[in-house]
Amino acid sequence: MPKPTRGARLGGSPAHERMLLANLATSLFKHGRITTTEAKAKRVRPLAERMVTFAKRGDLHARRRVATVIRDKDVAYQLFAEIAPRFTARPGGYTRIVKVGPRKGDNAPMAVIELVEELAEPATPARASRPAKKQDNAAALAPEESTPAPAAEADEPAASDESKTEE
Description:
By secondary structure, the protein is mostly helical. The chain has a domain at 14-115: CATH 3.90.1030.10. Helices cover 54% and strands 12% of the residues. It has helices at residues 14-31, 38-57, 60-69, 73-86, 134-141, 143-146, 150-166; strands at residues 33-37, 95-102, 109-115. The chain is globular, with a radius of gyration of 30 Å. InterPro entries: Ribosomal_bL17, Ribosomal_bL17_CS, Ribosomal_bL17_sf.
């Protein structure tokens, strides 16, 4: 469980906050996405991602660690059997928070937190496709003009060597 924050908590005592976050995480794994306030979404995200990481490990100790937070056995089974295998290739970032409009009653900022569906692709550096220097750019545009053909170079020195030996 995350360390309780100093100051005001999400609705009361540290115990109440812990149970509230556990219930939010359980609902997230049960339904795939939930709508809640931005503050609660930001607080439940690290907990949910940690639970998915435990589920990816899949050993007995990980199951017991998840069971301390996710009390519903059906949801815990779903986390290990269905959700964790989707994220085996993904090193992190299992959830997404999307801000939506304010709540009608009290104008509280709302957000949707959901499990990410698409597969993670390996990150490619942005500068790999661009040339590093201006000289490389000129060479890339006209490779024939900037570098002579290798066959022509090989023939010319050989001819000049023969002419030297004949003298």
